Amino acid sequence: MFTKLRPLVTQWTTVVPLLALLVLVLTWHRDLPGWVVGVVSCFLAGAVLAAVHHAEVVAHRVGEPFGSLVLAVAVTVIEVALIVTLMADGGDKSATLARDTVFAAVMITCNGILGLSILAAAIKHRVAVFNAEGTGAALATIGTLATLSLVLPTFTTSSPGPQFNPAQLAFAAAASLVLYGLFVATLTFRHRDYFLPVNSDGKVLDEEDHADPPTHRAMVYSLVLLGVALISVVGLAKGVSPTIESAVDSAGLPSSVVGVVIALLVLLPETIAALRAAARNRVQTSLNLALGSALASIGLTIPAVAIASHWLSGPLVLGLGPAHLVLLALTLVVGTLTVIPRRATPLQGAVHLAILAAYVVLAINP
């Protein structure tokens, strides 16, 4: 047994996550000088690449769409824990932290990851082909959850400001959890074929490559290391956030830019995994990662912060401002038009990236 595991133990994909976790323990809640931030950033990048590798090992063993679900849920659960921890620290920025993080995740996944995936696949294979049934169902669920959790608080009148009263927050949390649970059931059991990669004729592609899948032991080994790598990614991103905040303040930029940068760092594993799948013409896998991450971000974060709000001090602001409401509506409309034809050209990918660029520009210059 030791002989079989020795090659795995000595690989960089094993060593780097463990070292990154050690660096996280040594630097957690410490003021870091510039050179240490540079070291932490290197381990952060290594942990991202290791997470992508182990996610692909798990995905190859369990098949689609289970592999995409594992990575999306793992990242989101750790991200939710980070959000609640930061909210517990208090401060003026904690009131809008959940809203800003969730909206950033929705914009990055539904426009950034989706747009890059379509663009990469369409440039290499002329068109990006996917399954409209599964993608459309995911997009409809995202639109519903985002409206219930992020749009309605802006227009309710029972509480001052763009926030829910306790009964409304409980409803939004319950609806988010139920709809996300139903989506997972649809994705994994009842209509799994809606989320499998297809070719230009609409036929489901064979399983990933022709290589033999990894053993059960190797899959469990990668699953554990995936968790270690993702904890390291999110924790190290939190560690470098004070440096990012200082740089943002020095540049005179709004504090919301920090949330965008942190969201980009946390979503790097999914972005890289989606691009690699798109390059192999498995666009549906890329869309599963993108839209599944957006759904997990809303469906798990809102219930978590609703529960946490009972013991956390300060208000919980969830309602979006006018500019963000426009960007969310544009994202859903353009996403619908992208999904309906079942195939997309580089133009559609560029349109989604333009919406993400507008979001970034407004974050920098509101």
UniProtKB/TrEMBL annotation:
Residues 36-188, 222-364 form the Sodium/calcium exchanger membrane region domain. It is a multi-pass membrane protein. It comes from the Bacteria. The keyword Transmembrane helix applies. It holds the Pfam family Na_Ca_ex. It is found in: Membrane. Keywords: Membrane, Transmembrane, Transmembrane helix. The chain crosses the membrane at residues 12-29, 35-54, 66-87, 102-123, 135-155, 167-189, 218-237, 257-275, 287-312, 318-340, 347-364. The keyword Metal-binding does not apply. This is Ionic transporter y4hA. It comes from Kitasatospora purpeofusca.
